[in-house]
């Protein structure tokens, strides 16, 4: 098995073909297995490497997950927040990148509100760039950890029927998941009100439905998305109550799922809006597992990009 990805960077799900995506998932499984019996959960694979977490947007799960992943691989980690830095004084992304380059960063994990920012960053630095979410564009490691979670729970990805429900229009998670799951052989259905579906969705490798109840009985996976009110400047649906009534996953809807179907959410959740509390906390839910699996998957990505020697 190769121990590196085809591309130097991970900027979007399209960077991963079937072999690359499978390599990441298999490597994550090997890392998880290697750490399972260890009292000290560390591997020496990236000792001497420096990873910078460059976050221009608030984040809890993703930032901490990447930090833990790099530290468990024995890398040196620099956490950079735009708040309180020279960025707040007007420093450009390029100048920030060149500063980090001068400090010898081997890998830069970047989250930015502007779609395409990681792609620009990748042209300015010698190290590898990992997109940790850019605007409404992509979030490839979230898609990888979701695929990893599905494979662990269901034992396969080929032919798995995945329903992604909610604010697809503003969701970088949905975009990355659609591309990656299609590459891995899953069948994806998007469910949302017409106002929350992007223009050009007819070219995506998905089926589109406006009726959640109609697609639930045949779904293997239901992935709920948060309504991203902070990215909206207009009314996309009549009311939160109406949205929840038509597109929220509650106990009654969960009862229509097949016995082995699972429920996912990339977080952060709005309990009672797109997902009921009892559904989020049920045995079918993989929400907590997704967070844990994210560390293993991000360890695999950093290891494969930065060329650690096991």
UniProtKB/TrEMBL annotation:
It comes from the Bacteria. The keyword Transferase applies. It catalyses: carbamoyl phosphate + L-aspartate = N-carbamoyl-L-aspartate + phosphate + H(+). Keywords: Pyrimidine biosynthesis, Transferase. Belongs to the aspartate/ornithine carbamoyltransferase superfamily. ATCase family. PANTHER family: ASPARTATE CARBAMOYLTRANSFERASE (PTHR45753:SF6), ORNITHINE CARBAMOYLTRANSFERASE, MITOCHONDRIAL (PTHR45753). Residues 8-151 form the Aspartate/ornithine carbamoyltransferase carbamoyl-P binding domain. One of its GO terms (molecular function) is aspartate carbamoyltransferase activity. This is Aspartate carbamoyltransferase. GO terms for biological process: 'de novo' pyrimidine nucleobase biosynthetic process; 'de novo' UMP biosynthetic process; amino acid metabolic process. Gene3D superfamilies: Aspartate/ornithine carbamoyltransferase. It comes from Klenkia marina. Residues 158-305 form the Aspartate/ornithine carbamoyltransferase Asp/Orn-binding domain. One of its GO terms (cellular component) is cytosol. NCBIfam families: asp_carb_tr (TIGR00670), PRK00856.1 (NF002032). Its EC number is 2.1.3.2. Carbamoyl phosphate binds at residues 61-62, 111, 139, 142, 267-268.
């Amino acid at each position: 098995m190769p121990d590196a990805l085809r591309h130097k960077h991970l900027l979007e799900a399209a960077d991963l073909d079937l072999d690359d995506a499978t390599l990441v998932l298999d490597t994550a499984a090997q890392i998880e297995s290697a750490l399972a019996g260890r009292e000290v959960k560390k591997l020496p694979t990236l000792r001497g490497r420096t990873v910078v977490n460059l976050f221009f947007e608030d984040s809890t799960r993703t930032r901490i997950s990447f930090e833990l992943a790099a530290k468990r691989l024995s890398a040196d980690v620099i956490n950079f927040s735009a708040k309180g830095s020279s960025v707040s004084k007007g420093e450009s992304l390029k100048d920030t990148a060149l500063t980090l380059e001068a400090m010898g960063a081997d890998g830069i994990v970047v989250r930015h509100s502007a779609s395409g920012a990681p792609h620009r960053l990748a042209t300015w630095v010698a190290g590898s760039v990992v997109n940790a979410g850019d605007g409404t564009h992509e979030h490839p490691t979230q898609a990888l950890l979701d695929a990893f979670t599905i494979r662990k729970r269901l034992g396969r990805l080929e032919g798995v029927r995945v329903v992604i429900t909610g604010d697809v229009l503003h969701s970088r998670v949905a975009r990355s998941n659609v591309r990656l799951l299609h590459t891995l052989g899953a069948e994806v259905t998007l469910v949302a009100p017409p106002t929350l579906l992007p223009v050009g969705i007819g070219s995506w490798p998905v089926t589109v439905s406006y009726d959640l109840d109609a697609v639930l009985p045949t779904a293997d996976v239901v992935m709920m998305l948060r309504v991203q009110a902070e990215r909206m400047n207009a009314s996309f649906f009549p009311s939160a109550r109406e949205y929840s009534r038509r597109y929220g996953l509650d106990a009654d809807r969960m009862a229509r799922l097949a016995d082995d179907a699972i429920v996912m959410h990339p977080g952060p959740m709005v309990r009672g809006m797109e997902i009921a509390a009892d559904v989020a906390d049920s045995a079918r839910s993989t929400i907590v597992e997704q967070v844990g699996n994210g560390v293993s998957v991000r360890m695999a990505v950093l290891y494969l990009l930065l060329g650690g020697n096991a």
